[in-house]
Specification:
The protein is an alpha+beta fold. The chain is built from five helices and nine strands, in the order ααββββαααβββββ. Strands 1, 2, 3, 4, 6 and 7 form a six-stranded antiparallel sheet that branches. Strands 5-8-9 form a three-stranded antiparallel sheet, with no helix packed on it. The longest helix has 18 residues. About 10% of the residues are buried.
């Protein structure tokens, strides 16, 4: 506006002509990164707005993900089984959600780590030669704890070939038992009639309700 007022003042005292005023206005527009103006018809007025690109609205943020809806808790056939390396595993139930599956499990009593990780402990034995019994116990306990953290015992499948992907879970316990849950995506498709929860070499059948709410 100040620039335009200055041009109008110069024009008013006869210092510049209409053509020169239009030329200076276009120079200013080009310097600001705008396109020069076409000549206007006599007797018309023109409103110029700068910084139009800067006043554009920010892009619309993405829609939030849909809410995970609980559809039901499904029992498991023969949920309590002995393990080959000691202890027992119980699959307490399978939670169905609109977008995932969560398997609830319990180990009680706990497996025998000496039998579960027999090969790994045998590989470690030469490295423990010459150490005190107390230090040997500490190192063996650390190895079994690390192997238990790394171990992935549970997987999920259905009768229509869905590829379930593990998304984590959690566990805790003490004494002679441990409880946990393992989550998988996607949710169970409507056409599936049966899930299979596998813990190592043990398969647990999970018949699905025929009419499940998927809306």
């Amino acid at each position: 506006m100040t620039f335009n007022a200055a041009l109008e003042a110069l024009k008013g005292v006869g210092a510049i002509s209409d053509e020169e005023m239009a030329e200076w206005m276009n120079r200013m527009l080009v310097a600001l990164g705008e396109q020069p103006l076409e000549p206007s018809r006599p007797g018309t007025a023109r409103l110029i707005s700068f910084g139009g690109r800067r006043s554009q609205r920010p892009p619309r943020p993405p829609d939030p993900p849909p809410v995970s809806r609980f559809l039901g808790l499904v029992p498991v056939e023969e949920p309590d089984r002995p393990l080959a390396y000691g202890g027992r595993i119980q699959i307490l139930g399978v939670e169905l959600y609109s977008d995932k599956v969560s398997v609830n499990w319990r180990l009680a009593p706990l497996p025998d780590p000496e039998a579960l990780f027999a090969d790994e402990l045998a590989d470690q034995a030469p490295d423990l030669d010459g150490l005190s019994d107390d230090f040997k116990t500490i190192l063996r306990d650390k190895l079994t704890q690390r192997l238990q953290m790394q171990r992935r015992s549970l997987s999920l499948s259905d009768d229509v070939g869905t590829e379930f992907r593990s998304t984590g879970g959690g566990s805790g316990g003490g004494g002679s038992e441990r409880r946990g849950n393992s989550d998988f995506v996607p949710g169970v498709p409507a056409e599936a009639k049966r899930l299979v929860v596998r813990w190592d070499q043990l398969d647990f059948d999970v018949p699905l309700p025929p009419h499940r709410d998927r809306s």
